[in-house]
Design brief:
Chain lengths: 240, 100
């Protein structure tokens, strides 16, 4: 098989990906534990945690899903739509990986993008820019990320079940605190000001006017569209 | 596990995998720059902002104080876990002091 830039055998590249990802995997595990505790508060069972983390494998959307998680009357359609909206950015991420997977059979290519998450995608693209990026590297770092996320969320879920009434310890605020921190972590510069403010104001209004959790989608769409309008108006729309 | 939870989780998994696979399949037709690309890039943060804003706006003074504490801790430490623990601690103390 001829793969253009790969000077390393695939197995070496896989192990290199795993090894380089370890420090990132540790920080993923930290918020994985947080998610697991919150999942327990929301009434997600340990088996459901395992299934969701393993199959969905997309942290931000899993945090958002917990917000609407009411066992016994789950808003299935709302949660699935919100998940799609939060994860839509992955369309652009896996698109940039197309050159790496072009020589693979379809099933291998699809299996490898299943492991694409923000962090290991960014690391793989970093390797690509140095001429060393390979699918094996992506999969190696992805496997490391998957183990870290799935394992830590389960640990968090099991730890969380030790607590009795979370409101007693102010733990009900953990959601808001986590979302604030996740949001701040996404700050890339002044261009984010318009979408964030528009999203916040529209969401506050929608939460007052419309029953249910639709304000999440409405605010998210309004804010992101406002951000896109502001960015393209400036005539400097560069996407990494 | 309840059936509704199973359906929800499988639904979430299906749309997420569909998006991951879609990017690969549509790679040559997706815009890298311009309005649509910019819109998709802004989506996750906008969704998070929509989650946070009503929670803070509809909370009491204790929640507002804790939100500020969370913000401060995150900006200083860049650590999600520290910010969460600090925020929870802040709301716990603020509720106790303010009698909320």
């Amino acid at each position: 098989m001829s793969s253009p830039a790969a000077s390393l055998p695939a197995s070496n590249s896989f192990l290199l990906g795993m090894r380089m990802f370890v420090p990132v995997a540790i920080s993923i595990a930290a918020y994985g534990v947080v998610w697991g505790v919150l999942a327990g508060q929301a009434g997600v069972t340990a088996l459901e945690v395992l299934l969701m983390s393993g199959l969905v494998f997309a942290g931000a959307s899993q945090f958002v899903a917990l917000e609407s998680w009411v066992p016994g009357s789950l808003p299935i359609v709302g949660i699935v739509i919100t998940t799609a909206i939060v994860n839509l950015r992955m369309l652009l991420m896996t698109a940039t990986l197309r050159p790496l997977t072009r020589h693979l059979p379809a099933w291998k290519a699809l299996l490898s993008v299943y492991l694409v998450a923000d962090e290991n995608w960014a690391m793989t693209m970093g390797e690509v820019s140095k001429g060393r990026g390979t699918v094996a590297f992506l999969v190696g770092s992805g496997v490391c990320s998957w183990i870290s996320w799935t394992g830590s969320t389960l640990v968090g879920r099991l730890l969380g079940s030790v607590l009795d009434d979370p409101t007693n310890y102010g733990l009900d605020f953990a959601f808001t605190a986590t979302f604030i921190a996740l949001l701040l972590g996404m700050w890339k510069g002044k261009g984010d000001l318009v979408p964030w403010i528009v999203a916040a104001l529209v969401a506050i209004a929608a939460a007052k006017l419309i029953h249910g959790n639709w304000y999440i989608i409405i605010g998210g769409l309004a804010g992101s569209l406002a951000g896109a309008v502001a960015e393209t108006r400036k005539g400097a729309a560069h996407v990494a | 596990m309840s059936l509704e939870a199973l359906i929800t989780i499988l639904g979430m998994a299906a749309v997420t995998f569909g998006i991951r696979a879609g990017g690969l399949l549509l790679a040559d037709r997706l815009p890298r720059t311009g309005f649509v690309a910019s819109w998709m890039k802004h989506l996750p943060a906008a969704v998070l902002a929509s989650l946070v804003a009503p929670a803070v706006a509809n909370g009491g003074i204790a929640e507002a104080v804790a939100a500020l504490a969370t913000l401060g801790i995150y900006v200083l430490s860049r650590n999600l876990f520290a910010a969460m623990v600090g925020g929870v601690l802040a709301v716990f103390l603020a509720r106790m002091l303010l009698g909320g």
